[in-house]
Amino acid sequence: MSLLLNLLGPREGFEGGLFLPDFKQATSRRPIENVVARDPLRVPLQVSRTMPTKPEVAVGDSVLRGQRIAALVGTASVSVHAPTSGRVVEIDRVWTAREGFLPCAVIEPDGRDTAAPCNRTWSEESMVLQLAEHGVIVPAPLMPAHELIRQATQAGVTDLIVSAMETEPYLTSDLRTLVEQHGRFLDMTGELADALGVHHVYFALPYRHRRVVKRVCAEAAGRHIEISPLSDRYPQCQPNLLVKTILDREVPPGGTPLDVEAVVVPLTTIRMAADAVFSDRPVTHAIVTVAGDAVEHAGTYRVPIGTSVRQLADRVGLLAPVRQAVWGGPLTGIALTRDETVISADTAAILLFSQVHATNPVPCIRCGWCVEDCPVGLDPAALVQLEPASSADEQTKAHLKTCLDCGLCSYVCPATLPLAATIHRARERFCTTSSHSSGGA
Amino acid sequence: MKADARTIPGGWVALAAPHRLGGSTHLDILRSWTLAAGIVGLCGTVIFGASAAKVLLVAMLSAIATDCIVGYARARPVVGGLSHASLTGLLLGLTLPATVPWYIPAIGSLIAVVFGKIVFGGLGHFCWQPALVGRVVLQLLFLPTLSLSLHPTWPILAPGHLLVGRLDQPQRVEMAGYGGWFAQPHDANVQALAMERPVQTLRAFAQGRFRPDGGLAYEPLLREKLPPWQDSIFGLVPGGIGETCTLALIIAGLYLIYRGFLRWQMPVVMIAAAAVAAALLPVESGGNEGGYDWFPVFAVEQGRAVGVAYVLYHLTSGELMLGAFLIAGDMTTTPMRARGQALFAAGVGVLTIFMRLYGVVECECYWSILAMNTLVGVIDGRLRRRVFGMDEEP
Ligand code: SF4
Ligand code: SF4
Are B19 and A351 an interchain contact pair (Cβ–Cβ within 8 Å)? Predict the structure, then answer.
C-alpha cells in the first residue's frame, strides 16, 4: 500500500488551485500543549445565536469541569459545559468572532480543575442524543453535529468523507490531533458511518505527511474505511472539492455535498464526538493553532473555551506589536478588531501578525492568474466588474454561488484587487434578494 | 525584543479575507521585465557600441518624460509609476537599429506612450502592445531611415572593437567567403563591418531572387549568402539592438519564466509554430520554371540536410526571438489563460513566417503580434474555463 502510494502520488481532482507556502514548520512538530485557565473565563452560553439554550447556573454557583451550564432548547442546538472548575461570578455578554455578542457566564477558576463525575453510559441508539448533550458541533458551516447527521440521513447519503485536510497556511490543529491520537478517530468514523448507513467511508488526509498516512493506513487495516491521501494544493480542504476529488461528483452551484449524496465531516467534529461518545467528555476546549510572525511560542494549544485572545497572547508571548489578528486561516479567516474576543468551540486558529499585507489596487493588468488558479473555473476579473450593476443574469448568479470564498484570486492578484471580497459582496446582494423575489413571485 | 501583550489594542487592522497575499505585485512584474529587457539591452550595447546605449537611453527617458508630463497635465497619478514607461521605452529601443538618429527613439517613445497607452486609459486598458504601436508608426514615418529594402547593408562592430568601437565607417564585407565574425582579422582601422541582414537575405530567397546554382538552391544560400549560424546565436549579425542576440534573449526569457511572469507556452509555442511554418510553407524556387518549392525542410542537397539549417536560420533571424521572449508575452495584450496564450503564440509564429515569405511589410513579427492582439477578445471568449458543477460548455 505505502509503496503504491509513493509511486502514484496523491490524487489530483480539480483544476486550478495553488501550492501555497505553508509556514507550518514552526508548529507542526510541537505537541499540543494544554493551556491552564488562571484568569476568569468568559464562557459563551450558546454556540451561535441560532442555537438557543437555557442557562443552568446563576451568579455564585460553583461548577466542575464538564458540568453543564446551559441546556439545549429545541432540536437544532447543543448544550454548553464549564471548561474548568470554579465559581460563576457574573452573567454577562461576550464578543465572539463569528457570532458577535453572545450571553456568557464568567467563571473564576479555582485552580483545581476538578472534573464532574462521569455518569452516562454509551449505547449506540443514543449516540445522536449524546452528541447534542455533549455540545458536539460542525465548525463550517456552524451547526450541531446531530443536525448534520439528521440532514444527511434525510438526503440519503451514500458516502461519508472525514476530512483531516488543512491546506491553508499556518494551520496545524488537525495534523497534530491526528498525530497524537489517530486510533479513536477511526473508531468514531466507523460509528458515524453505522449511524448514517453509508456505503463507503473515506478518510482524507494530507499526502505530504507520509508518516501520518502510513500510521493511519496501518490502523485502518481490516476496517471498511478507505484512506485517501490527497495533495496539499489549496483549497483541497473545501468540502465541495473533496467530493470532486474523491468521488468525482460535482456539487451544483450554491449546493452542498448533501446534494450529491455525500457528507463531509471535519476531523474537529470527529474528535469532539469521540471524546463525547467514548469518554463522556463534553466539548470544553478547542484545539487552536497560535502562529504568525508576532508570536513567540507558536504552536498548537488546547485552550479552554472562554479564554480571550489577550489571555492567549499573554500565554504564548509576543515578539512584536500585533498589527493584524486573524481568527481562522489566513485566506478565509475573520479579522479580529477586539482583543477580548473569546475562543469558541469552532476556533481552529488565532494568527497574530506584526505586518499587514496592505492592498493598493490598480486596474486589472489581465495577467490571468486569478482565472488560471480559481479552483472552480470562474473568471473573477470579469465577475468583479459587476459590482456597480443593479442586477445580474441567471448564469452570473450561478457563477457567484459557485465561488467557494477560498480567497485564492485575491491572494494571487498582482493588481491587489479585492476580488474575493467583492465577489462575496456581490453574491450577498444579488443572490439573496433574487431568492426573495422569486419566492414572492 | 519582547513586546508587551498589552500593545495589542494599538489598532488592529480589519480587512476582508484573505489576510496574507502572494506578494507579487504589478510593480514586481514590470521591474523583472525591465531587468530582463535590460540584460538584452546590455548585450546589444556590447555588440553595437555606445550608439546603442544612446538609443536605449533616449527611448526610456522620452517615455518617462511623456508619462510624467501627461500625468501632470491631467493631474492624476500615473498608475504603474515610471516602471511601465521605462519598460515601454526600453522595449521600443530594443527593436530599433543602433544607427538611427536620436530623434527617432524620442518620437517613437512619445507615440508609444501617448497613442499606445494613454489614449486607451492607462495601464491595464490598452489592447495593443504600446512599444510595438510606437515601432510600427516609426516604420511608417521614417521609412527612408528604417526600411531594409532601401538600405542593403547594416553595420556591426568588428572583432576587437566590441563596446567601444564606432559604427560610422563600416567596412563592407561580402557574404561569399565570409568565414564568420570570429574569423575576421583584428584590424585597428576597421571598427565596424557592414553586411546584409540575414532576414533580408531570407526574404529575397523566398521571393526567388537568387538563381539556383546548377540545381542547388539552399546550399548556395547557406554557404554564400548567410553568415554562419552560430553568429546569429551570439547576436553578431546586423539588426535591431535587441533582436540579434538569441542567447541573451533566451536567458532573459528563462528568467521571466522562472519568476512566473511569462508563461513558457508563449515562447515555446511561438517558436515551434514559426518552425513548422518555415518548414512547410513553399518558397519560390527561382528556377526557370518559376514554380514553388514545397516543404523546404525536407530539402537534401549534396547529402546534407540543408532544409533543417534553412529553418533554423528563419528562427534566429529577424525579430522573432525578441518578440517571443520579451514582447509578445506582455500580460495586458495577451489572452488570460495559458492555452489561449498558446493559440495566440501559434498565430503570431505562423503569421510572422507567412509575412516574411510572401508579404512586403517589414517588421513582420511586430505586425503579427499587433494583429493577434486584436483577436485577444475572441480567443478569451472561446477559451473560458468550464465552471464547476455547471453542465453547459461556454
Ligand atoms: S474566492 Fe471564489 S472566485 Fe476567487 S478563486 Fe476562490 S472560488 Fe474562485
Ligand atoms: S489576478 Fe488580478 S490583475 Fe490578474 S487578471 Fe485577475 S484581476 Fe486581473
Answer: yes
Q: Which residues of B touch A359 (CB under 8 A)?
A: 15, 21
Do the Cβ atoms of A257 and A251 come closer than 8 Å?
yes
Beta bridge partners of A161: A202, A264
For domain A285-353, is the CATH number 3.10.20.600?
A: yes
Q: Give the closest residue (by CA) to ligand 2 atom 1.
A: A413
- Report whether pLDDT(A283) > 80: yes
Strand locations in B167-212, DSSP E?
171-172, 192-196
Instruction: Count CA atoms within 13 Å of residue A210 on its CB side.
Output: 9
User: Which residues make up the CATH 3.10.20.600 domain(s) of chain A?
Assistant: 285-353
The mean pLDDT value for A309-318 works out to: 92
At position A57, the amino acid (one-letter code) is V
Q: pTM for the whole thing?
A: 0.90
Residues 6+ apart with CB under 8 A from B82: B64, B67, B68
C-alpha cell at B134: 510606437
What does chain B come to in residues?
394
Instruction: Report the amino acid identity of residue B358.
Output: Y
**So where are chain B's domains?**
26-146, 197-378
SS3 B152: coil
Domain(s) labelled CATH 2.40.50.100 in chain A stretch across 41-109
Indicate the residue of B5, B17, B29 with minimum beta-carbon distance to A420.
B17
Contacts of B219 (CB under 8 A, 6+ apart): B213, B301, B302, B304, B306
Give 10-residue mean pLDDT values along chain B (394 residues): 46 80 89 95 93 95 92 76 90 94 95 91 89 94 89 89 87 84 85 90 85 77 85 90 94 95 95 95 70 81 85 90 94 93 96 89 92 94 88 58
Amino acid letter at B78?
V
Give the homologous superfamily in CATH for domain A136-279: NADH-ubiquinone oxidoreductase 51kDa subunit (3.40.50.11540)
- Report the DSSP pairing between strands A200-206 and A226-230: parallel
User: Could you give the CA distance from residue B15 to residue B72 in angstroms, rounded to a whole number?
Assistant: 32
- Chain A nearest-CA residue for B21: A411
CATH 3.40.50.11540 in chain A, residue ranges: 136-279
CATH of A41-109, one of 2.40.160.10, 3.40.50.2300, 1.10.520.20, 2.40.50.100: 2.40.50.100
pLDDT in tens, A149-199: 999 999 999 999 999 999 999 999 999 999 888 778 899 999 899 989 999
Identity of the residue in B22, B125, B340 whose CB atom sits nearest the CB atom of A412: B22
Interface-testing mutation among A250, A322, A384, A396, with chain B (most B C-beta atoms within 10 A): A322
Task: Tell me the pLDDT tens digit for each residue of A373-410.
Answer: 999 999 999 888 876 677 778 888 889 999 999 999 99
Determine contact, residues A406/A333, Cβ cutoff 8 Å: no
